[in-house]
Amino acid sequence: MKAAQHGGGAGGLVRRMAEQRKTLGAIMAEASRDQEASESKLSLVDLLAIGIGSTIGSGVFVLTGNALPIAGPSAVVAWLLAGLVCLFSSLAYMELSARLPTKGSCYVFSYHGLGELASVIGAVCLTMEYGISGSGVARSWSGQLFALTGNWWVMCYNGGAPGEPGCNGDDDFYFDPLAGAMTALCAVVVALGTDMGKLVINTFTAAKICTVLFLIIAGLSLWTGNMFQSAATFAPTGAAGIVSATSVLFFGFIGFDEVCCMASKAKDPAKTMPKALAGTLLGAAILSGTAQLALAAMVPWTESMTSIAFPQAFGQQGWQWAKWLVSVAELALLPLVVLLSILPQPELTAAMSEDGLLPSVFRKSTRGVYRRGTIIVGALLSILAACVPFSVLWDVISIGVLLSFNLTNASLVQVRYGNGGSISEPRINGLVWVMLGAACVAGFTMYYGLMQPLMAGDHLQWPMSIISFVTLAIAFAAALAVSRCEVKCDMRDPAIFKAFGVPFIPCLAMFFNFFLIAAIEPRNLLYFGVFLVFIVGLYVAYIVGKRGQGDCSAKSERNIDVPQVDLVDTPASEGESTSGSSARNT
C-alpha cells in the first residue's frame, strides 16, 4: 500500500501508517522459522512458571497490605473482582496467541488487527511493562537491601545523605550501582539461552510459591478475631471500599500477558499459550486472594490502620523469626521479577527488527537466542536501573500496560470480523474505533463523575455521570452493530481457542481498563502522553527516512503484504541465522 494512494504530506503518511497491516502469511512464516530456529522449547509448566513468577510478587508482598486498610477483610472479594476484570482482557490474549502464535504479543496483534501506527504504540506500552518496569524492580530490590542491612551504596542527586527524604526507597533520586548490576546479571542469564533461563526461572518460581504458601499457613495460624461476625466487620468500608481496593489490586495481575511474548519458543504454541494464560490467572488469583485472607485474619481492621506488609504483621504478633524469614525470602526472590521482565524484551525488539522498525542487529540469532539484541537491551536497561528515579514512573508504566490491553481487545474484534491483515470491512473498522473512543470517554467520566466523589464522600457530578452512561451506551451500541455482521475468521478449528462474548466482552474490558487509567494522577497521564508522542514522532521520522529508499523496498522490509508462497530463506552464516530475513526477500 503506497503512500501516494493517500496523497502526499504528513496526513497521507499518517493515514498510510494507520491502515497498513501485517498479513497472516507473514506472521505464520515468522512463527514457522522461529519454531525451527529454537532448539529448546518451553513446555506448559515452563510457561506457567514464567507467568506465575512474574505475576506473584508485589501483589502478595505489597498490594495485600495496601488493600487491607481500604476494604478490610472484603479485600479478598476485591481480588476476585480484579481477577474477573483481568479475565475479560485475557480472553483476547488467549485467542490471538492461538491464531498468531509468534513473538511480539500486543505489538503483533495490533500490527495485524489495527495497523502499523497502533503496533508502534503497543511496542512502547510493552517496553514499559517489560524492560523498563524490570529496571524499576531492580531499584526496589536494592532499596529493600539497603533498608534491611542499613547500608546505602548510592550517590544522592540532591547532595544529601542516603536514606534521607529525596534519597530513599520512596524518593529514589540517586545513582544506584547495585540495581544496574542486578539488571545486567539478569540480562546475562537471558543471553545464555532458554535452557539456562528456564532452569533459573522454574527454581525461583517454585521457591516463590513455597514462600507464599508459608505466608498463608503462618498467617492463618495467627487468626485473630472473627472477620465474618457481621457485614460491617467483613466489609467495614462498604461497596465503595471494595471497588476502590479492586482498582488497586488489578495491578497484582500485571504480567500474565508476558507468556504471549514467548510464543516463538513454546511447544505447540497455538494449544499451549491459552492454557498458560488461563493457568497464570487462576494461580495468581488463588494464591493472592488466599494470602489476603491470611493477612486479614492476622491483622484485624481498624479505622486508623495504615498499609501493612507481612513482615510487619508477623512482628506485631511476636513472630520475629517469621518477620526476618519473609524479609530475606522476598529480597532473595525479587530478582526473579527483574529476570522475567527482561526475558520477553529481546523477543519484542526482534519482532520489530524483522518488520524493519529497528536495526537488523536485534534480529540476529544463534540457535533461536537473540544474544546481540539481549546484550544491547540489557546494557540500556542496566543504565536505566542505575540512573533513572522510578518514583515518578510507576503510574506511567501502569498506563502503558492498560493501554496495551485495550489495543489487544480491539485487535481481536477486528480479526474476528475480517480486518486482520487488511481493512476488508471499513464499516467494522469504524465501529471498533467508535467502541474504543466511547469506552475511553465513559471510563474517564464514570471515574470523575461517580467513583471519585463516592470515595471522597462528596456529591456526585451529574453532568459527567450522564455523559458516562451515554457514551457507555454508544460503545455497546457499536458492539451490537458489529455483532450483527458476519464473522470472517476460522471458527471451526478445534485447536484454536475462541473467546466468548465477542465483541461485548472486549468492549466491557476496554471500559474497565480506561476506568482504571482515569484513576491515575493526571500529571502522570500527561507524562505518558508526552513520552508516547515523542516516541511516535521518532518513528514517523524514521519512516520518512525510509521513504527516500522507495516505498516498495520499505514495504517488503516490514513484511507487509508479502505472500507466504514467495518467501525465500536467506542462508545463515557462521552458525547464525537472521530471523525474519526470508520474509523480507521476495
Give the gist of this structure.
With about 575 residues, the protein is mainly α. It has helices spanning about 10-20, 25-35, 45-55, 60-70, 75-100, 105-115, 115-150, 175-190, 195-220, 230-235, 240-250, 270-300, 310-315, 320-340, 345-355, 370-385, 395-415, 425-455, 460-485, 505-520, 520-545, 550-555, and strands at about 155, 175, 365, 575-580. It is built from 22 helices and four strands.
Task: Walk me through the structure.
With about 575 residues, the chain is an all-alpha fold. About 65% of the residues lie in helices and about 0% in strands. The protein contains 22 helices and four strands. The protein has a two-stranded antiparallel ribbon. Helix 7 crosses helix 16, helix 13 runs antiparallel to helix 14 and helix 18 packs across helix 20. It is globular. The two termini are about 15 Å apart. Mean pLDDT is about 85; it is low at about 1-5, about 550-560 and about 560-585.
Distance between the termini: 16 Å
Spell out the helices and strands N to C: HHHHHHHEEHHHHHHHHEHHHHHHHE
Into which percentage range does the β-strand content fall? under 5%
Structural class: mainly alpha
| Cα radius of gyration in angstroms | 24 Å
Mean pLDDT: 86
Tell how many strands the DSSP assignment holds.
Answer: 4
- Quick one: overall form? globular
Given as residue ranges, the uncertain stretches (5+ residues, pLDDT < 50) are 1-5, 551-559, 561-586
Q: Helix fraction?
A: 55-70%
**Strand line-up across the major sheet:** 1-2
Counting DSSP H or I runs of 4 or more residues, the number of helices is 22
Q: What kind of sheet is the major sheet?
A: 2 strands, antiparallel
